[in-house]
Amino acid sequence: MQKRATFRNLWLASAFIAPQLLLVFVFFYWPTAQAAYWAVTLEPAFGGGNQFVGLENFRAVFADANYWASVGASLLFAVGCTAVAVGAALVLALFADRGLRGHRLYRFTFFLPYAVPAAAVGLTFRFIFSPDAGLLAGINHVVPGLWNPALDGNDAFVLVLLGQSWKMIGYNFVFLLAALQNLPRTTIEAAAMDGAGVLRRMWDLQVPLLTPTLFFLLMVNITDSFVDSFALIDVTTHGGPARATMLMVYKIYLDGFESKDYSLAAAQSMVLMALIIGLTVIQFRVVERRVHYR
Amino acid sequence: MIERTPLVNLLTHLVLVGGLLVLLLPVYVVVVAASHDLVAVNQVPMPLLPGHHLWENLAVAWQKGNFRNVMLTSVIVAGLVAAGKVGLSAISAYSIVYFDYRLRMVFFWIIFATLMLPLEVRIVPTYAVAANALEPFQALFDLSGLSVTLPRWNLLNSYSGLVLPLVATATGTFLYRQFFMTIPDELAEAAKMDGAGAFRFFKDVILPLSVTNMAALGTIMFVYAWNQYLWPLLVVTDQNYATASMELGRLVPSAYGEAPVWNTAMAGTLIVMAPPLAVVVVLQRWFVRGLVAVEK
């Protein structure tokens, strides 16, 4: 992990590292420390310094049924998006990897959705799934009132879930295809010689060999669904109807910026942060192990 | 490998074409909806072929969303983020990899650990910092008992505010570090033997070698910055600094109001998604390479 030939010019070394360290301190560590501070203090209603209240804010957060509802929604959202986005990308990558006619076109187009801004994804899906125009509105002509994301929580949830998944399929596809192409051809050919058909080889050979990549994508997709869903929710459902799509990030935003309750928002931030740190640590432990095996 | 598997081949084509249709359908719907007049776009079922009003809808959306200013701001911000990131991470990774000092690995972990603290999570306090970027230092001075009074440096409604927090992330530093580790040691040894100093080696050897990585990172960061939504929404209250993505949210009434004017809304969506899509289509090779490399 260390270069054999290094330089000793410490002035240059410090000058080169200083800008990033300063930025990281100002925009990452200071705000994080601030959030931790706010999470254990309360600002008095009539001015004055913050008062230390210990875990009171966390207690208030955990006692709130709305909070647990948002945790539940976030988890369901994470599981749903990850299943759809990783599953669909896996099927597409396995088939695209066969290299039949046109596979270059697929490689080129499948990841394009990832470049679309989340706000644009949100607006697009809002139109496609809107109850009185767009693609799905036809259902309401057959069975009136069957589909309405503005009134029905489940419909709204499906809408944001599909939007987020659509965006991530392309991302997952890139990684899975790259991993598939790195698999040893000889193993696959040996299996073919033994009479394993295409589908059997996919299921019994390629998918198991992909587990490290799949696991990595699992973690990335879960984290992304926690964090990156903000724009999607903000242009589609605003957390509604009746809090059905109130994910944790969106609730933090509302509590912090609409209700101006920094302490409550900070306590929730700390919980979400712990979740994300946990996921990242798990991910790195597994990735580390994979690197050692090679 | 040559196999005769006509049935599975058929299945393969069906799955891939199906996937292609599903993945491109939303974009196609946007184009179709953006090309009809208001009556046609609100028909149920919606028209499946593009109409003839694309340009006038684009023009209306362009006007309504103030896209002339907004697109310019977005291009500037995304360009600055990409350039800043490419430069900043190159030098900090160089410092971490090619110098021998005790805090090297500490600095690496300090930078690296920020990957676990996405902006959305620490959004409220980061906003507070943006109101005065020198406040952390002021607080440190106050703590240490020094009576220094720093000026305020307000980042709200400024390019620095839009750009700096996005430049601070660790992805680029990590990418460069991985790359620098693969550069053979002999290069640095030869350079030292020839009497080149650290800066000379960086300028004449490392930078030319890194061009590919820079292109990859630049592409990704441009798209990443362009697609930012939450941060611009917070730091910008002055319309002069609005970015394209956040403007899109304002182009339509909220979810529970009246239905949006869909044809112009979709035209706006098209305008906003076009630049990142174009960048990715043209620079596809760099984008994919960078994406895979950053996460390795």
TrEMBL record, chain A:
The chain crosses the membrane at residues 67-96, 108-129, 156-180, 201-222, 262-284. The keyword Manganese does not apply. Its main location: membrane. GO terms for biological process: transmembrane transport. Belongs to the binding-protein-dependent transport system permease family. The complex is composed of two ATP-binding proteins (UgpC), two transmembrane proteins (UgpA and UgpE) and a solute-binding protein (UgpB). This is sn-glycerol-3-phosphate transport system permease protein UgpA. It comes from Lichenibacterium ramalinae.
UniProtKB/TrEMBL annotation, chain B:
It comes from the Bacteria. The keyword Cell inner membrane applies. GO terms for cellular component: plasma membrane. Residues 71-283 form the ABC transmembrane type-1 domain. InterPro entries: MetI-like, MetI-like_sf. It is a multi-pass membrane protein. Keywords: Cell inner membrane, Cell membrane, Membrane, Transmembrane, Transmembrane helix, Transport. It is found in: Cell inner membrane; Cell membrane. The chain crosses the membrane at residues 7-31, 75-99, 106-130, 156-176, 205-226, 261-283. One of its GO terms (biological process) is transmembrane transport. The keyword ATP-binding does not apply. Gene3D superfamilies: MetI-like. Part of the ABC transporter complex UgpBAEC involved in sn-glycerol-3-phosphate (G3P) import. Probably responsible for the translocation of the substrate across the membrane. NCBIfam families: PRK10973.1. Belongs to the binding-protein-dependent transport system permease family. The complex is composed of two ATP-binding proteins (UgpC), two transmembrane proteins (UgpA and UgpE) and a solute-binding protein (UgpB). This is sn-glycerol-3-phosphate transport system permease protein UgpE. It comes from Lichenibacterium ramalinae.
